[in-house]
TrEMBL record:
Any Pfam family matching the protein: HicB_lk_antitox
The organism of origin for this protein: Desulfosarcina ovata subsp. ovata
Gene3D superfamilies given in the database record: 3.30.160.250
Identification of the protein by name: HicB-like antitoxin of toxin-antitoxin system domain-containing protein
Highest taxon, organism lineage: Bacteria
HicB-like antitoxin of toxin-antitoxin system domain mapped to chain residues: 5-58
Lineage of the species this protein comes from: Bacteria, Pseudomonadati, Thermodesulfobacteriota, Desulfobacteria, Desulfobacterales
Length: 66
């Protein structure tokens, strides 16, 4: 899975990472590298929570390319 991540440096010098496709999925780090590692963990956690709320049912899924 590939997702777009936006990383910006805040006024305190931290790098803040956001995944626009996953509402509420944010993280940060003291360096850009740390922010990227942290947002990867945040994405995994976000996906686990969403899976627990609504389990994946293969027979109800389709693949769509855009």
């Amino acid at each position: 899975m590939k997702l777009h991540v936006i990383i910006e440096k805040d006024e305190e010098g931290y790098y803040v990472a956001e995944v626009p496709a996953l509402p509420g999925c944010f993280s940060q780090g003291k360096t850009e590298k740390e922010a990227i590692a942290n947002i990867k963990e945040a994405i995994e956690g976000w996906l686990e929570v969403m899976e627990a709320k609504s389990p994946f049912v293969p027979e109800h899924a389709i693949a769509v390319s855009v």
